[in-house]
Amino acid sequence: MFMRQRCVQGTGRRHRLAFAAAGTMAVAALVTGCAGQGTSPAPGTTAPPAPATTAVPGPALVPGGVTEAQAAQLCTDLEGQLQSWRTYTPTIGKTGLNGLVGTWIAKNNLNALDFLQHRGRIDVITTAACPDIRQQAITALEIPDLASGLVGF
Is residue 108 a part of any domain in this protein? Predict the structure, then answer.
């Protein structure tokens, strides 16, 4: 019986500690919330001027209207496929080109409709960013330009 009473007494003590901790946190939250409210400036005074902001230039664009990073990614993706395009038939390679360009457009949140209407943008981008890789892709796929290999773009 003595043990049970002791256990019950311990439970009550734990509850009091929990309530005390909760109360302390509530008071701390109240004090912290009120501390952020400052007094308003005296009438006739002005607030300090806001710091001047400078325009941060956006990422540099390459011909074709994409960023340098996006163009570099396209070139890297094309370069990664060159060997398989040399190995397989041009028809299979063109299918791979379409998948590669579609994936690249999606990954970079580019306007797919614009690329559908202006397939030559791919040639403009790759001519500016990686002309040697572009030429190797054209040779491997046996097409006059990359736009010619894009179906539905």
Answer: yes
Spatial distance between the Cα atoms of 144 and 85, rounded to a whole number of angstroms: 15
> Which of the residues in the chain have pLDDT under 70?
1-58, 152-153
Domain that holds residue 111: 63-149
Instruction: Look at the pTM and tell me if it is higher than 0.70.
Output: no
Q: Which long-range contacts link 103-106 to residues 24+ away (Cβ below 8 Å)?
A: 103/77, 104/70, 104/73, 104/74, 104/77
Quick check: is 124 in a domain? yes
Question: Which residue has tokens 């796929």?
Answer: 141
Specify the number of domains making up the chain: 1
Phi then psi for residue 67, to 5 deg, are: -75, 165
Angle of helix 90-107 relative to helix 68-87, nearest 10 degrees?
Answer: 160
> Considering the domain boundaries, does residue 34 fall inside one?
no
